[in-house]
Amino acid sequence: MKFALFLGCNIPARLEQYESSARGVLGKLGVGLVDIKEFNCCGYPVRNLDFKTFVLASARNLALAEKKNLDLLSLCKCCYGSLKKVDHLMKEDASLRKEINATLEKEGLKYEGGIEVKHLLSVLYHEVGLGPLKEKIKNSFEGLKIATHYGCHVLRPSQIVQFDNPVAPSIFDQLVEVTGAKSIFWQTKLECCGAPLWGVNDDLSMDLTEKKLTDGKQSGADYLCTACSYCQMQFDTVQKMILAKRGTNHHLPSILYPQLLGLSMGLNREILGLEKNQLPISGIEDFLVFS
Question: Could you tell me the CATH number of the domain that includes residue 72?
């Protein structure tokens, strides 16, 4: 089982712990990762500014992975959504495929739709499987309540991303509960984290984030859990700003899923990068029952 690992832009620059924890977990599970240094931005930031540029950016990444005959594994859900969108367009629109491939050919590349785009969570759920995951658990969480945040780009548009049931998803919850933690119900579970508005309308972005933090806290969560770079930065870095600027009392730290899973698998703190999270999550280890 081997994939081309797509990190996107934010993870190497702002979330090194996402990469290190994901590599640590996947390595323990026997999932091979290939780094393609020529990968570029997925195109997400320019999707609504220049659509053809967006398509070309994603298509180039797809072509690079296809050249090595590897399915592509994304950690970021925004990247996943962008790559899935362009994969769909390139497979369904022959005219667009011809136009984009004409540009890619200048680099000796082309995309014919011969690979699949997968997210970290879908690889863990479908390719590895819950059974093998459970076999790797060394320490189980007891009494820990987690609010899973799915994010927008793995659920919509559902006919393209094909990640899970868009109105009643369960994959992330099941993966969380493999660790022994309880995935709680919370009303705003599927609502936007607010990240798309950051830099455009920061106050509104923080309003959306604070709404989710309030709901998660009132619903009994001890921690939020994410599997997307944008969502994690919103619930970690931006939440820290909210606490400082607004003085709210809805403090609800966010942990990346491979950090949560890695703790239950017995991986060390350095690999998981726990100290690199903006809001401390060290207390989560108090819920672990060591076997």
Answer: 1.20.1050.140
